[in-house]
Amino acid sequence: MDVIVIGAGIIGSSIAWHVAEMGATVGVVDQYGAGARRGSSHGATRGLRYSYEDPAYARLAMEAETWWRVTERRSGQRLLRMTGGVDIGVVGSPSFDATVQTVADLALEHRLIGGSDLACEFPWISVPDGYSGLVQTGAGLLDADTALSTIRALAGDAGATFQWETAVERVRRDDAGWELDIGRADAPIRAHRVALAAGPWTSGLIERSPDLSLPVLPPIAVLQCEPIYVELARPLDATPLFYIHPDAEYADGLYVQPQPGTRDAGTRDAGTRDAGTRLLKIGRHGGAGHLDPTNPLPGPIEDHGPMVDRLAQFVPAVEGGRVRGFDTCFYSTTPDDGFIIDSIGGGLFLAAGFSGHGFKFAPVIGRAAAELLLEGETAYEVDGMTLSRFAV
């Protein structure tokens, strides 16, 4: 086999798809079944947005949108719905200012609107004094579960094979390439190249595999996160994706995604207009430290009240609503919140540390990884995402 990918989440599956499309033989192993709700690839929605502090990530998000459209054309599935987006923040705060600067420098379609004008455009938003809104068209929602199954299907159609419930105990190097010890009577799995895309299990596998000689150990912290679902006291019309930037009042960024299929179906028939969005997914960009993703802590592991109160500052319809539930997922977080995308040498590739915002980039990361694995170079802007930036 030419390439073996460890991990069948959205990143590993995307790598396998592109490797197979480029004509190499590729297999994927994953310790769970195809329907497992582990890691960080499951769920109803993920956001796609161009509004990043770092222009490299903004440009990569635009490339990712192109690849999501390719994925839709190849599969016949609708995966991405562009809703537009609103970033809310305080002018003068580092996160908001850097984002506004990036959007302006890249000449992306946008408007910077003061609080009162923003509330006029989006009547369901209440903007406290001192806050402004960055309104852009370059944002939308991905159907996460369908996107994952679609990319896996495209990988399979291109010749990739998936081996489920196959836990890799360690990775060994030999003269012919790489060998995966799966701890069963089965013969070890061998390939010329290996792509490690194991999400929050990455560090543990590296620790068990002395042959994974990396120039720097990846500084990955595992966080258990709980995005919540809030049923609103009243429906909202024309709800974009939005993001509330951190500031002196609240230290974490807060992302908010309107949930599809939650419009007031019980109060209308086929001839009436949608009553509006009734359910929002809300998550803070952070979580509780947890070292063992194989055994999630029983939730809820944190008080969701402060997150709801923060959102209620900007969306009054949250007041009087109720929390309908929460997801459990894991962030594999690097110190700078950036990704690790690195061709180590000797046929080893590392894709890790996606820090809670990697899903949107999956198809372009998969393409860049496949090109680096098979051709040794890529035109995509990932050269600043190598392990070397963490060297002391």
Describe the fold and architecture.
There is one protein chain. The protein is of the alpha+beta class and about 400 residues long. It folds into 2 domains: about 5-40 and about 145-220 and about 335-390, FAD/NAD(P)-binding domain (3-Layer(bba) Sandwich); about 85-135 and about 220-335, D-Amino Acid Oxidase, subunit A, domain 2 (D-Amino Acid Oxidase, Chain A, domain 2). The protein has 8 helices and 23 strands. The protein has helices at about 10-20, 55-75, 95-105, 115-120, 145-155, 200-205, 305-310, 360-375, and strands at about 5, 25-30, 45-50, 80, 85-90, 110-115, 130-135, 140-145, 160-165, 170-175, 175-180, 190, 195, 220-225, 230-235, 240-245, 255-260, 275-285, 290, 320-325, 330-335, 340-345, 350. An 8-stranded mixed beta sheet has the order 6-7-5-16-17-18-15-20, sandwiched between helices.
Topology:
Blueprint: E1 3-6, H1 10-21, E2 26-29, E3 45-49, H2 55-75, E4 80-82, E5 85-90, H3 94-105, E6 110-114, H4 115-121, E7 131-136, E8 139-143, H5 144-157, E9 161-163, E10 170-174, E11 177-181, E12 189-191, E13 193-196, H6 202-207, E14 221-225, E15 228-236, E16 241-244, E17 254-258, E18 277-284, E19 288-289, H7 305-312, E20 322-326, E21 329-333, E22 340-345, E23 348-352, H8 362-375
Parallel strand pairs: 1-2, 1-13, 2-9, 5-16, 13-23
Antiparallel strand pairs: 3-8, 4-8, 5-7, 6-7, 10-11, 11-12, 14-19, 14-21, 15-18, 15-20, 16-17, 17-18, 22-23
Helix pairs in contact: 1-5, 1-8, 2-8
